[in-house]
Write a structure and sequence with these properties.
By secondary structure, the protein is mostly helical. The protein has one domain: Tetracycline Repressor, domain 2, CATH 1.10.357. Helices cover 73% and strands 0% of the residues. It has 18 helices and no strands.
Length: 332
């Protein structure tokens, strides 16, 4: 399969291509493209941070962007300030993403070595030691913290729930079947961070922001449940939990229910914020259409199909929400 085919349609994995396919699915051995021009000693850290492909980075950044656009609409912030805030939060999201994924792999190393897809990640295969990964996590965390210096102190305080949740997240699968909800909270709280960075005090008291938060949590749960299906056999054997393991043959039923409630949250947000027609057409209809296509077409028993819909399908939903919120800010 060539790279252009990978992004045009969900692939079907042939038996002989299993190892190559797993390496592309954040299995820890992905190279190619811009990664190959880097010094060889850097490549394990790029793999550790999930920077190629950049899906993980943008899944962290999108909620921050939603929060910025929501607050910009509410407070009528100047465009120059909105752009500045978006750029700073993108930089902070990059460092935070690096730190979060390195921390996840530090804690998960004993489990990763038992899972077919993840056993060749940099820590289990020995290219990065535990101490090196810990130093990398600390350095990236400090890099993320530096971006908070550009905002009011209240924004730094707003990040505390994300930090606590992200620190706990790697253990969630050991304690519950709902690590996807924990992840959803960790990522979606970026809406509150983005809103705070754009001038809203205590954004968690804003009913519209809460609607957006719950919609984002449901979105995360949907795509991460599909992502979790890649490892369902190994997870069941090892004894770790996920929504995929819990619901098994009823997973698609669960996903349809989540889509329904996500749509309700987006409709309620539009009602509270008095959003225009563009929001309902692009955001509400766009999200429901893209997520429905994902759930209807993903082959849960096909690892390559799960990966494609996770890594490519999320763009449609993220961009739909972004455009609708931007239209609200621009009064379109």
């Amino acid at each position: 399969m060539n790279s252009s085919q990978e992004h045009k349609e969900p692939p079907t994995t042939k038996k002989g291509d299993t190892e190559a396919s797993l390496s592309q699915q954040y299995g820890g051995t992905h190279t190619g493209g811009w990664v190959n021009v880097l010094p060889r000693s850097w490549i394990p850290y790029i793999q550790l941070a999930r920077l190629s492909p950049p899906a993980a980075l943008f899944l962290i950044y999108f909620p921050h962007l939603f929060g910025v656009l929501h607050a910009a609409n509410l407070c009528q912030q100047p465009a120059s300030e909105v752009i500045r805030t978006c750029i700073l939060l993108l930089g902070g999201s990059l460092f935070f993403s690096n730190a979060a994924h390195a921390w996840n792999d530090l804690v998960d190393a004993p489990i990763d070595k038992l899972v077919s897809r993840t056993k060749k990640r940099p820590i289990p295969r020995g290219d990065i030691t535990w101490a090196q990964a810990l130093v990398f996590t600390a350095v990236q965390s400090m890099g993320a913290a530096c971006f908070l210096l550009f905002f009011q102190p209240t924004t730094a305080v707003t990040t505390v729930p994300t930090i606590v949740g992200t620190t706990y997240y790697p253990w969630a699968k050991r304690h519950t079947h709902f690590p996807q909800l924990v992840l959803g909270f960790c990522l979606s709280w970026g809406i509150m961070v983005g809103s705070s960075a754009t001038g809203i005090e205590s954004p968690w008291r804003d009913s519209a922001a809460l609607c957006l938060l719950f919609a984002s949590i449901l979105w995360t749960t949907i795509y991460d449940t599909i992502y979790a299906y890649q490892d369902i056999e190994d997870d069941e054997r090892i004894g770790v939990g996920s929504t995929a393991v819990l619901f098994r043959s009823y997973t698609k039923t669960l996903l349809w229910v989540l889509i329904f409630f996500l749509g309700a949250c987006l409709l309620l947000y539009g009602e509270i914020m008095h959003m225009g027609t563009t929001y309902y057409i692009v955001t509400v209809s766009g999200c429901l259409s893209s997520l429905s296509a994902m759930v209807a077409n993903v082959e849960l028993k096909n690892h390559a199909s799960c990966w494609w819909w996770f890594s490519c399908g999320f763009w449609f939903t993220g961009v739909s929400i972004t455009i609708g919120l931007l239209a609200g800010y621009l009064d379109l």
